[in-house]
Amino acid sequence: MIDRMNRWVGRQRRWLPPVDMQAGKGFWQQFEQAEAFDKAFHTEVNKQCKCDGRAIRFDPFWAIKHGGESERERGHGLLTQAMSTVLASRGIDPDAVLENAQSSLLEWTGCLPSTTDLALAS
Questions:
Q1: N or C, where is the chain less crowded by C-beta within 10 Å?
Q2: According to the model, what pLDDT value does residue 21 have?
Q3: Measured in Å, how far apart are the chain's first and last C-alpha atoms?
Q4: pTM confidence score
């Protein structure tokens, strides 16, 4: 019941693809094993952020929110590398895209009730 509700909410808020067929096996593996992936991701981030003899450890999460431009870039790069490492270790292509990557917003809106207002990112 909770899984069905999560999928329904995910589609309504456009966190999930509108049709199961658009996402590959790797996407659903991540969705269904989110807690395990999260733990592995944080473990990989910690491994990549070793102190290297310094008293202060680089925190990419802080850097993205509060750091200067170079710190944000370094944080994004580190987190991207950590996620790619975790995905690749589980046989998932980190560069995979939805099968219908060319789909338009109009196709997405067809999956929603006509009374749904869509919030567009600015």
A1: C
A2: 64
A3: 34
A4: 0.62
